[in-house]
Amino acid sequence: MFGLFGGKDWNVLAVLFERADLYTVTGQRAKGAAATKARDGASAHPRTIYWAAFDQKGVLKEGGEGPGGRSVPADNIKRLEKELRTNRTVQEILKMLETGQSDKAAKPLVWGGYPRKPAAPKDEEA
Fold it and tell me: How far is CA 19 from CA 37, 53, 60, 108, in A?
C-alpha cells in the first residue's frame, strides 16, 4: 500500500567522464530499495561527474557531483548542474525511462560546455 503513496520510483542518471571532449549519460529506472541502491551506485562510480535522481514526472529529487568531477574543470560541473534538466540528451533518456521504453539507457552527451581544445601552434617561418 505504501508503494502507491510516496514509494520511490526514480530515474537515476549519471553523467560519466569518457574523455575531455565526451561525457556519457546513463540512466536506470528503479523502485523502492533498488532506487536507493541505483542512486548510491551512480553517486559513487569513479567516472561519475554528476548524478541525479528524478521522479516519474521529471522532477529532480536529488543530485550532486561525483568522484569523476575531479577530471573536469569546476566551471563545467557548475554549468552541467545548471543545464542538466533542460539538456536534450538528458530529456531523451528520461523519456525512454518514464515511458517504459527501457529500464536502462545510455547516450553520448550532446552539450556545448565541453572544454575547448587548445589551438594548434602556428609554425613560425624564419
Answer: 26, 24, 26, 11
Output b/e per residue, 52-75; b: 16+ Cβ within 10 A: bbbeeeeeeeebebbebbebbeee
Please state the pTM of the whole predicted model.
0.86
Judge contact between 108 and 22, C-beta under 8 A.
yes
Residue-level pLDDT at 2: 44
At 125 the pLDDT is 59
Instruction: Identify the segments of the chain with pLDDT beneath 50.
Output: 1-3
Locate 67 and state its grid cell: 568522484
How many other C-beta atoms are found inside a 10 Å radius of the C-beta of residue 3?
10
